[in-house]
């Protein structure tokens, strides 16, 4: 019989390779909103991309849904330590959306109905890593989870996934968003546990 450290098995039991450090699994879908839920009708909804030169490209609901909609399954990691694995969404990839947008900006600030903002490098929105999601588990996204449309950037902590998204500002200089401005990490990689400023 070999010598086996109990700590090794303990970690193996707890260790889910899909779970970033410090996170726990949850089956339900918590709602985290910094303010009231804005109720935005799809008749009124639009998404505007504003480039660093001030050019605006805008899609209304029908125009967004006329773009190729992808179905994708991703894991969600909230900075408050819950993770939800294997969530399935439908939405338009930011690669598709930004395809015809002329820009040399390096940063993006997502803006939401209700006033929320969050920032990230523009490249993190590209290469199949970010979507404007319009459906969750086969149904329209409920208002509390960001419907009619939310940004999803699942490789970063979930505060980067702006609910009720209404715009993307493409910027030459980084501009902190709502949580980033009060001490959350500017980038927010769950695998490097970048929760707060200085992590
Ligand atoms: N517009 C907006 N988007 C937001 C937030 C918010 O308060 N307002 N909260 C963020 C945070 S901290 C998290 S964890 C997720 C929560 O998404 P959920 O409520 O669908 O779980 O939304 C993010 N997007
Ligand atoms: Mo969060």
UniProtKB/TrEMBL annotation:
Pfam families: Oxidored_molyb (PF00174). It comes from the Bacteria. The lineage of its organism: Bacteria, Bacillati, Actinomycetota, Actinomycetes, Streptosporangiales. This is Sulfite oxidase-like oxidoreductase. InterPro entries: OxRdtase_Mopterin-bd_dom (IPR000572), OxRdtase_Mopterin-bd_sf (IPR036374). CDD domains: arch_bact_SO_family_Moco (cd02109). Residues 35-179 form the Oxidoreductase molybdopterin-binding domain.
């Amino acid at each position: 019989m070999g010598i086996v450290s109990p700590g090794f098995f303990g970690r193996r039991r707890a260790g889910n390779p899909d779970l970033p450090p410090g996170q726990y699994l949850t089956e339900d879908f918590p709602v985290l909103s910094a303010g009231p839920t804005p109720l935005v009708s799809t008749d009124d909804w639009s998404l505007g991309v504003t480039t660093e030169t001030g050019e605006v490209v805008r899609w209304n609901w029908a125009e967004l849904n006329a773009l190729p909609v992808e179905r994708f399954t991703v894991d969600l990691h909230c900075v408050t330590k819950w993770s939800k694995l294997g969530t399935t969404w439908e939405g338009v990839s930011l690669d598709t959306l930004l395809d015809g947008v002329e820009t040399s900006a390096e940063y993006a600030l997502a803006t939401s109905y209700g006033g929320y903002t969050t920032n990230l490098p523009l490249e993190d929105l590209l290469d199949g890593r970010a979507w404007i999601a319009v459906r969750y588990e086969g149904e329209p996204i409920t208002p509390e989870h960001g419907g009619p449309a939310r940004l999803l950037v699942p490789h970063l902590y979930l505060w980067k996934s702006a609910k009720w998204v209404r715009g993307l500002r493409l910027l030459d200089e980084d501009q902190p968003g709502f949580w980033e401005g009060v001490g959350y990490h500017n980038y927010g990689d769950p695998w490097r546990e970048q929760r707060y400023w200085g992590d």
